[in-house]
Design brief:
The structure holds two protein chains of two kinds. By secondary structure, chain A is mainly α. Chain A has a single domain, classed as MetI-like fold. Chain A has helices at 2-17, 20-53, 59-69, 74-85, 100-136, 141-151, 153-168, 172-178, 188-197, 201-233. Chain B has two domains: 25-104 and 220-268, D-Maltodextrin-Binding Protein, domain 2 (3-Layer(aba) Sandwich), CATH 3.40.190; 105-217, Periplasmic binding protein-like II (D-Maltodextrin-Binding Protein, domain 2, 3-Layer(aba) Sandwich), CATH 3.40.190. The chains are: A mainly alpha, B alpha/beta.
């Protein structure tokens, strides 16, 4: 129990001191995870919509694969991206291993299946329900996807938040492709891992509380914005 | 389809630009968890960065992994502690030259209860034999790190064939120094650790140093520039200036200045022959 009270104390002193280094780490974590969630959304949501409204060969297989990929182990993604971006790898000439860009790429790959699979499900259900209606309005399949994406935007925000949540809580891939370099690629989760390694468990847990708090605050903000918009325009 | 492809390409280019805009005067140093987790780098690097304007980006892994990283051309400099592995790296042509930098020592850590009765001894071989015959819990790094390699060498020197002797008492964790210490602390096991990480380690529980001072516990660190001829992206000049500084009187003094609780963690010995 002692560890918990110590951790709580650490949390408060960290917050009170507003340690410049900690602020940098928090901002870096947010910047990368938000970028990954946005890129993932821009690609993943339309992908989900297209799969939802179209009939094509291998569609079921694709859906099963996408659903399965939601459980993609992050270390595997880390390893794949590492091998791609390594100097000895096919994209080695880009020279972006151990940079924030590498982390964003890994996080995007990690959350993309989740975003595509969940939006496929949500949009698929709506398509099932409104298909006749949309058709009678003269909507083609090509046009239905954007219409449904727009109509379901409030549900889709939650899906993007799920992607963001997985990105910011990720440690395995970020450690491998980022290298946990102080001041460059050290994010909240890898800082927690490092402090755990040093045996400073209260500090590690304190940082964990801060991470939880940030994720909570961001989700609360998104909820309020979403809810307000839904009342006004929904 | 063309639009999608173009968007994707633009996205990739934007991403690449994001990475490229970062500061260019930096080097990547593949090093070990002991130098990172003992806090040496946070003491050492600001001094060098201020003087040279070169940012040093440390990726801390076990020695084996650090060398493998450099073998793929992903580091400019390696700073590790396993001489035989380092010399193999040189012989393969991946490194230019090895410079001894500093040393400290390994210590045998164990619980205060000390069921194998080894406390206070100076003979590491004798201690390992007692642990093995008592079947006392022993945590191994098991990650091909410098400390793991040293541990395996010591088992070999004590005539114990781990392949036969290992049982539930020998716990291969495949973890860095800190996590292995956390594991040992929670199960009151023995383990071999480098003194630096031990001194900086906070979650000690009932663990303490039981055996130290045997010359076979010496732990030598070396630094090497990765070979430009084999890996054309290596920043030779920047990397070499970091190495030159490490072995210079100023670098050596900065290393010996690093202390925790008044105790010096690393002892500079650049230029010493045969280490």
């Amino acid at each position: 129990m002692n560890s918990f009270s110590e951790a709580a104390g650490q949390t408060f002193s960290l917050l009170a001191s507003a340690d410049a280094k900690l602020v940098d780490i928090v901002l870096l974590s947010l910047r990368m995870s938000i970028t990954a969630a946005l890129i993932g959304g821009v690609i993943g949501l339309p992908l989900g919509a297209v799969i939802a409204v179209n009939e094509f060969r291998g569609r079921r297989t694709l859906i099963v694969i996408l659903n399965a990929l939601m459980g993609l182990p992050s270390v595997v993604v880390g390893l794949l991206v590492y091998l791609l971006l390594s100097r000895a790898g096919p994209l080695g000439s880009w020279g972006i291993l151990f940079t924030p860009t590498a982390i964003i790429i890994a996080q995007t790959i990690l959350i993309m299946p989740t975003l595509a699979a969940l939006s496929r499900q949500v949009i698929g259900d709506a398509w099932h329900e409104y298909r006749e209606q949309l058709r009678s309005l003269g909507e083609t399949k090509l046009g239905a996807a954007p219409t449904l994406l727009w109509d379901l935007k409030f549900s889709l925000v939650t899906i993007v938040l799920a992607g963001f949540g997985r990105a910011i809580s990720e440690v395995g891939a970020v450690m491998i492709v980022g290298g946990n370099i102080d001041g460059v690629t050290r994010v909240m989760t890898t800082t927690i891992a490092l402090e755990t390694s040093k045996g400073d468990l209260p500090l590690a847990l304190g940082l964990g509380f801060i991470l939880l708090f940030i994720v909570l605050a961001l989700n609360a903000a998104a909820y309020v914005v979403n809810d307000t918009a839904q009342r006004r325009y929904g | 389809m063309v639009i999608i492809r173009r968007t994707f390409l633009a996205l990739l280019l934007a991403l690449a630009a994001l990475g490229a805009q970062a500061q260019n005067r930096f080097i990547v140093v593949a090093s070990t968890t002991s130098t990172e987790q003992s806090g040496l780098f946070s003491h050492l690097l600001p001094v060098f960065e201020k003087k040279s304007g070169i940012q040093v980006r440390v990726v801390a892994l076990g020695t084996g992994q650090a060398l493998d990283l450099a073998r793929r051309g992903d580091a400019d400099v390696v700073f590790v502690h396993a001489r035989a592995a380092e010399e193999k790296f040189l012989a393969e042509g991946h490194g230019v030259r090895r410079y001894p930098v500093m040393y400290n020592d390994f210590v045998l850590i164990g619980p205060k209860v000390d069921s194998a009765k080894i406390a206070g001894g100076k003979d590491i071989i004798d201690a390992l034999k007692k642990i093995e015959s008592a079947r006392a819990a022993f945590v191994s790094r098991g990650d091909n790190s410098g400390t793991h390699i040293a541990e395996l060498d010591l088992w070999k020197a004590s005539g114990i064939d781990l392949a036969k002797a290992r049982g539930p008492w020998y716990r291969d964790t495949g973890q860095g120094m800190g996590p292995a210490l956390n594991t040992a602390a929670s199960m009151n096991a023995y383990l071999l650790a480098d003194r630096g990480t031990w001194l900086a380690f906070k979650n000690r529980g009932d663990l303490e140093i039981l055996v130290q001072g045997d010359r076979r516990l010496n732990n030598q660190y070396g630094v090497m520039l990765v070979n430009l001829e084999k890996h054309p992206t290596v920043k030779r000049d920047l990397g070499q200036s970091f190495i030159d500084w490490l072995v210079s009187p100023e670098g050596q003094k900065t290393i010996s200045d690093y202390k925790i609780g008044g105790e010096q963690l690393f002892f500079p010995n650049a230029g010493q022959v045969g280490v």
